[in-house]
Amino acid sequence: MNNQIASSQMKTNYKRMKKIILILLSVLALNQANAQGKKTEKATFGMGCFWCTEAIFQKLKGVVSVKSGYEGGKIANPTYEEVCTGFTGHAEVLEITYNPMQITYKDLLEVFWKSHDPTTLNRQGADSGTQYRSVIFYHTPEQKELADKYKAELNATNAYGKKVVTAVEAAKPFYVAESYHQNYYKNNADAPYCRLVILPKLEKLEKVFKAKLKN
């Protein structure tokens, strides 16, 4: 009789352990799926002409891709010519896909603020107009918090000698720019604009962020 009770109890315990193991395996599989789904994240920055800035972020470790495009305007699928009028309200931006395990959003913000002049309203160098405004389009509340905090610190320490005017706004529909805008520096490295405007920015990147660059 005691043997029967012991055998029954063992079977019950076995079934319980089997259920627990199945539950643990399910949770583990879900966590792995979530981790794989979070392999990459997006960051979107406007910092003047995207010809100048695309090549900067392409060189960073952990950056998977960089797309030049338009964001923050009033019409869908704008053309470059329409954006250049300033009437559509779009900014020239970069949509950056990155691996947060290799480069953080804070790192990207640091490169963003040190690679253009965030104190000039609707202007970067000779480029003037709302399409060249300094703007961060955040994708998550965490990105907004980091951007706001970083901007406040820059102004509190008077880092640029002038007020940072970079706008921090929720992400809006992003429209990929025409194909000839993509990989502009890579495809036109010998062009006068690339040598005179973009190359100095890349040389500065090499000096300031050498440890963050791809080999």
UniProtKB/TrEMBL annotation:
Function: Has an important function as a repair enzyme for proteins that have been inactivated by oxidation. Catalyzes the reversible oxidation-reduction of methionine sulfoxide in proteins to methionine.
GO molecular function: peptide-methionine (S)-S-oxide reductase activity
Domain of life: Bacteria
Gene label: msrA
Keyword annotations: Oxidoreductase, Signal
Keyword Signal: yes
EC number of the protein: 1.8.4.11
Active-site positions on this chain: C49
A Pfam family this chain is assigned to: PMSR
Entry similarity comment: Belongs to the MsrA Met sulfoxide reductase family.
InterPro entries, sorted: Met_Sox_Rdtase_MsrA_dom, Met_Sox_Rdtase_MsrA_sf
Keyword Lipoprotein: no
Domain Peptide methionine sulphoxide reductase MsrA: 42-194
Catalyzed chemical reaction(s): L-methionyl-[protein] + [thioredoxin]-disulfide + H2O = L-methionyl-(S)-S-oxide-[protein] + [thioredoxin]-dithiol; [thioredoxin]-disulfide + L-methionine + H2O = L-methionine (S)-S-oxide + [thioredoxin]-dithiol
Protein name (database record): Peptide methionine sulfoxide reductase MsrA
Residues making up the signal peptide according to the UniProt record: 1-35
HAMAP family found in the cross-reference section: MsrA (MF_01401)
